[in-house]
Design goal:
globular; eight-stranded parallel β-barrel; single chain; TIM Barrel; binds phosphoenolpyruvate; 255 residues; alpha/beta; 17% strand
Length: 255
């Protein structure tokens, strides 16, 4: 991953909430206030059509560009899909894969998520692999089992030669957009479960240097500190609270 691996990672997932103009405007406001922030790795993930505009805004700044999804092939007859090679061409560095909204609405399976993870890595992009249990799975006592299955399946056949990075985001599906994050100790417990799975897949030095674990789900100014710099957690994926420049800037300034 980057030499700044020890810095907290904050990703803003704007989902499909903003127009191109609104995305560029928000990127400008965030960049104006935060581009001199050197102690945090910041990533903006706009909707696909806004990537070129936001890329222009963050160019030569310390803020990185992320995409919200990717296809599992680099080129070919795949109408409507977006290639990881094209994302790279646009200056994208991170790509979200396996977000629960895609698993739910687009019926993405563990195999699809694994294919996307491999394709992203093949282009030198850093996958932000999202895993998390639904409320029903949690109530059935299946939380850790679901997380372990999702991580194991998504990383089947994945190797991380030096220079490549991976982020695993624990995002409990039932708290996303709810305004109520999980208790930090629960997020930390789940991060330990994820770490245990990673230990069976990658050498310890790779986990140490190239993999980051983060939390996502109703992160806001009041709770962000509890999820960052709390090993093994070292960052957050932020949805709703990243849509207002003021709120997002306040949030990052908590760190
Ligand atoms: C998300 O969907 O990735 C997310 C973290 O959303 P929110 O912060 O709105 O819960």
């Amino acid at each position: 991953m980057s030499p700044s691996h020890n810095k907290p990672l904050v990703l803003a997932n704007w989902k499909m909430n903003l127009s191109v103009r609104q995305s560029v405007d928000l990127a400008r406001r965030v960049t104006r206030s935060l581009s001199r922030t050197t102690k945090i790795d910041l990533v903006l993930c706009p909707t696909f059509p806004a990537l070129p505009g936001v890329a222009e805004v963050v160019k030569r700044k310390s803020i990185a560009l992320g995409a919200q999804d990717v296809f599992w092939k680099a080129a070919g007859p795949y109408t409507g899909e977006v290639s990881p090679a094209v994302l790279r061409e646009l200056g994208v560095k991170y790509v979200i894969v396996g977000h629960s909204e895609r698993r739910q609405y687009l019926k993405e399976t563990d195999i699809v998520v694994q294919q996307k993870t491999l394709a992203a890595l093949a282009q030198g992009l850093i996958p932000v692999l999202c895993v998390g249990e639904t409320f029903a799975e949690r109530q059935a006592g299946q939380k850790d089992v679901v997380i372990m299955r999702q991580v194991t399946a998504a990383l089947k056949g994945v190797t991380l030669p030096s220079g490549l990075g991976l982020v695993v985001a624990y995002e409990p599906v039932w708290v996303i957009g709810s305004g109520q994050a999980v208790e930090p100790r629960e997020a930390l417990h789940t991060a330990q479960v994820i770490r245990q799975v990673l230990i069976d897949i990658f050498p310890p030095s790779v986990i140490e240097r190239q993999v980051r674990l983060i939390y996502g789900g109703s992160v806001d100014t009041t709770n962000i500190a509890a999820f960052v710099r709390q090993p093994p957690l070292s960052g957050v994926l932020v949805g709703g609270a990243s849509l207002s420049a003021k709120q997002f800037i306040d949030l990052v300034r908590q760190l």
